[in-house]
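Anyone up for a design puzzle?
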């Protein structure tokens, strides 16, 4: 597995979730500072927004091309089954 790159969709999803977490942290410390936001709403937003950002980033990222498939070798000769 040495030398294998991480797929583009996985990288995009991870970066999307990290970016969403950073944006939420900034919003909570700068924008909502001093305002009473219910803890239940904060929890739901903290769960849903990064998950949605990761899904969207992974969905929009291009697929990673696969390496060329190795052609199969010659088929093994069939042997007659006993009793048939």
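Challenge accepted. My sequence:
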């Amino acid at each position: 597995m040495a030398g294998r790159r991480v797929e583009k969709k996985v990288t995009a999803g991870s970066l999307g979730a990290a970016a969403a977490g950073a944006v939420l942290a900034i919003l909570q410390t700068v924008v909502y500072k001093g305002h009473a936001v219910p803890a239940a709403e904060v929890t739901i937003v903290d769960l849903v927004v990064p998950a949605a950002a990761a899904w969207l980033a992974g969905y929009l990222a291009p697929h990673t091309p696969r390496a060329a498939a190795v052609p199969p070798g010659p088929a093994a000769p069939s042997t007659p089954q006993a009793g048939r």
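A detail worth pointing out: The two ends are 46 Å apart (CA to CA).
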